[in-house]
TrEMBL record:
Similarity comment: family membership: Belongs to the thiolase-like superfamily. FabH family.
GO terms, molecular function: 3-oxoacyl-[acyl-carrier-protein] synthase activity; beta-ketoacyl-acyl-carrier-protein synthase III activity
Name the record gives this protein: Beta-ketoacyl-[acyl-carrier-protein] synthase III
Superkingdom field: Bacteria
Gene it is expressed from: fabH_1
Gene Ontology CC entries for this record: cytoplasm
GO biological process: fatty acid biosynthetic process
Protein function: Catalyzes the condensation reaction of fatty acid synthesis by the addition to an acyl acceptor of two carbons from malonyl-ACP. Catalyzes the first condensation reaction which initiates fatty acid synthesis and may therefore play a role in governing the total rate of fatty acid production. Possesses both acetoacetyl-ACP synthase and acetyl transacylase activities. Its substrate specificity determines the biosynthesis of branched-chain and/or straight-chain of fatty acids.
HAMAP family: FabH
Keyword Lipid metabolism part of the UniProt annotation: yes
InterPro entries: ACP_syn_III_C, ACP_syn_III_N, FabH, Thiolase-like
Domain notes: The last Arg residue of the ACP-binding site is essential for the weak association between ACP/AcpP and FabH.
UniProt keywords, alphabetically: Acyltransferase, Cytoplasm, Fatty acid biosynthesis, Fatty acid metabolism, Lipid biosynthesis, Lipid metabolism, Multifunctional enzyme, Transferase
Catalytic residues in the record: 118, 251, 281
């Protein structure tokens, strides 16, 4: 087979949603002042999901993976590779992908993690597509799973209101028809400082700042510019134009980034799948989560062209153009 095709999607959100008012009330106890109005007007976010302490990325990812396998109509023992995109792994090692493999019983699968922060899923899908097209694998489970609540400084209102936990997954399989049409990946390590969680483990303790830190305005500007550029690149690679795209599914960081990206591409907001208002920013989970929501509610249909886009820490960015 010349192509790889998405044959199932799944997602999972932990616990009950935490609305902006509830979050503001929790933060007020620590004298951190925020409001539903501020969060909604600046970001579009109205609620997010927060994992319990025992719910890890592999746990959330396993739920999403099972749902994707069920939709695909295949059992876990048919999977020959698992790639998990995460920046909040269960442990330094083993990889979250190995832990997820054990949870779902995918005993014949190889497993590894990809770390590209909010671009992680786009990087993982690109890798899975290449592995299938080179003939090395047939059926790949590609998962984005994150517990960014663990990285939040709950005293920093400029970041802690933005993120949420969750997982999304797709099953990608070798196919005689397209499929993934084109992929493009980029990174610029010189911009590492605008979005970091620099803490690492050394000699039994965390060295460096353990929390996520962000220069919000720098990230905003960078995100809008690179998302526009990479969309054009991946469309050109497949000889298509923005008019051929049925659905734009960008990383869900902020509704204003989605609006600015759609405008730059000349795509109407009616064609942009938006979940950030309900999920917050779930980093590598946001794109497969949004895709699964739109597949299950009937918006994304077989044969349509979808443009997936990631952007985030690193700085990293990329896109996948897919005939669903
Ligand atoms: N509640 C109330 N007030 C707040 C909050 C809050 N949660 N956070 C910041 N403020 C205040 C600030 O202190 C500032 O007050 P001041 O004027 O008295 O100094 C004021 O609001 C304005 O702050 P700005 O940082 O200028 O607000 P801005 O309009 O830039 O919005 C935001 C900030 C939402 C972070 C924006 O820059 C943004 O969306 N950036 C993109 C970053 C992003 O979405 N990152 C997600 C991760 S990256 C990724 O996934 C690609």
């Amino acid at each position: 087979p010349l192509y790889s095709k998405i044959i199932g999607t799944g997602s999972f959100l932990p616990n009950a949603a935490v609305g902006n008012d509830e979050l503001a009330a929790r933060l007020a106890k620590d004298n951190v002042e925020t409001s539903d109005t501020w969060i909604r007007e600046r970001t579009g976010i109205t609620q997010r999901y927060i994992a319990s302490p025992e719910q890890t990325a592999s746990e959330l990812g396993a739920h999403a993976a099972r749902a994707a396998l069920e939709m695909a109509g295949i059992t876990a023992d048919r999977v020959d590779l698992i790639i998990v995109a995460t920046s909040t792994p269960d442990s330094t090692f083993p990889s979250t992908a190995c832990l997820l493999q054990a949870k779902i019983g995918a005993d014949h699968a190889a497993a590894f993690d990809v770390m590209a922060v909010c671009s992680g899923f786009v990087y993982a899908l690109t890798t899975a597509d290449a592995m299938i097209k080179s003939g090395q694998t047939q059926t790949v489970l590609v998962v984005g799973a994150e517990v960014f609540s663990r990285l939040m400084d709950w005293k920093d209102r400029t970041t802690c209101v933005l993120f949420g936990d969750g997982a999304g997954a797709v099953v990608l399989q070798a196919s005689d028809e397209p499929g993934v049409l084109a992929n493009r990946l980029h990174a610029n390590g010189k911009l590492a400082h605008i979005l970091t969680a620099e803490g690492s483990i050394n000699g039994g303790s965390v060295v460096g700042d353990p929390f996520l830190r962000m220069d919000g305005q720098a990230v905003f500007k960078q995100a809008v510019s690179v998302l526009g550029d990479v969309a054009k690149e991946v469309l050109a690679a497949a000889n298509l134009t923005a008019d051929d795209v049925d659905w734009l599914i960008p990383h869900q960081a902020n509704v204003r980034i989605l609006q600015a990206t759609a405008k730059r591409l000349g795509v109407s907001m009616d064609k942009v799948i938006t979940t950030v208002h309900l999920h917050g920013n779930t980093s590598a989970a946001s794109v497969p989560l949004a895709l699964d929501v739109a597949v299950r509610d009937g918006r994304v249909k077989k044969g349509q062209v979808i443009l997936l886009q990631g952007v985030g820490g690193g700085f990293t960015w990329g896109a996948n153009l897919v005939r669903f």
